[in-house]
Design brief:
The protein is mainly α. It is globular, with a radius of gyration of 20 Å.
Length: about 350
């Protein structure tokens, strides 16, 4: 039993890493176009900020925070992004409950746009509606090192094969073998297995062709050292916690008997600016212990690491963003709960 939990945690972590690699690649190539589009009007800000928030991971949220700190978008767009984002929780949902994950991300995108409009109306007369007016000297910058994909780069990569690239290639090739052989992941060929194979091959392509600078900054420092070990530790810990709770403490019956309090708890835990604690609601939902409304409330209120740059720039603004998201999450989650979801 415990070996099975360890195997599942490793499988989820590898899947998360592959999705993270692909999302980082997309972010690196689209950063300039997205940021210029964001400056084109209020509703453009709402839509694109919500879209960046709804994409898995924290880079989209970091970009929006950076633009807000530089005074290039308004507070409503920032709040909409934080409503739409759920950090690394999105990667775990894609691994555990892929069908519901896409539904959650679509709803968060839609709710992000609505909340951005409401927040702009609510904070119109506040002194921090535009961050550049109150704190222009503070900034947060996300470095985007563009990957380079050509045959000259390929020859250079393997002529001077770095240890980081060697490890990454070994990991991806070994994962491809295990997944193709059915040792990990779905046993039968379905859309999940086919999609995973495609994403795995895409990540392998990036690992082969990407420049050393991109590999070092994005893949190694940001994804592996910054995220991956946390994802594995939190995933394994929560899976063990839930298994012990189901075996010895009957948490299934307790949660089902106190769903209103669990919904409120999911919002309170969402105030923590860290992805890990919120993963418990993903695993509880995956085991049909909590309803969709609790998962959605958690996803609305929490924002993974997305708020950390804003906390370093302004505690006051961060406080109001979290309070707004908490109230909005409780409202939306309660509506879904009352309708039986």
């Amino acid at each position: 039993m415990w070996l099975g939990i360890l195997k599942e945690a490793l499988t989820i972590t590898i899947f998360v890493f592959i999705i993270m690699t692909l999302m980082d690649f997309i972010d690196a190539f689209s950063e300039q176009k997205l940021t210029s589009f964001l400056k084109g009007g209020r509703w453009r800000q709402y839509i694109l900020a919500a879209f960046l928030g709804a994409t898995p991971g924290c880079l989209g949220a970091f970009m929006v925070v950076s633009l807000y700190i530089h005074g290039q978008i308004n507070l409503g767009a920032l709040i909409g992004c934080m409503v739409a984002t759920c950090g690394d929780e999105a990667f775990i949902m894609l691994a555990k409950i892929p069908e519901k994950a896409f539904l959650v991300m679509f709803l968060l995108f839609f709710l992000g746009i609505i909340s951005a409009w409401i927040a702009d109306k609510f904070f119109t007369f506040s002194s921090f509606a535009s961050f550049a007016q109150c704190c222009p000297e503070k900034s947060f910058h996300v470095e985007f090192a563009e990957p380079v994909f050509n045959f000259n780069q390929l020859k250079k990569n393997f002529k001077q094969l770095s240890f980081h690239r060697f490890l990454l290639l070994i990991l991806l090739c070994f994962t491809f073998f295990l997944f193709s052989a059915g040792r990990i992941g779905p046993k039968e060929w379905n859309w999940i297995r086919t999609t995973f194979i495609f994403l795995l091959l895409t990540s392998l392509f990036i690992a082969i062709f990407a420049s050393e600078h991109y590999l070092e900054i994005h893949i190694w420092q940001h994804l592996i050292k910054g995220h991956l070990w946390r994802v594995f530790i939190w995933t394994l810990s929560i899976m063990v916690f839930i298994k012990i709770g189901l075996l010895y403490f009957n948490i299934d019956a307790f949660i089902r008997g106190h769903l209103t309090w669990v919904l409120l708890l999911s919002a309170l835990v969402g105030l923590i600016p860290e992805s890990g604690p919120h993963l418990v609601f993903v695993f509880l939902y995956a085991q049909n212990i909590i309803p969709f409304s609790v998962l959605l409330t958690s996803s609305i209120v929490q924002d993974g690491h997305g708020m950390l740059p804003l906390f370093s720039a302004s505690i006051k603004i961060s406080f109001w963003v979290k309070i707004f998201n908490f109230c909005f999450g409780i409202l939306v989650g309660s509506i879904f709960y009352l309708f039986g979801y």
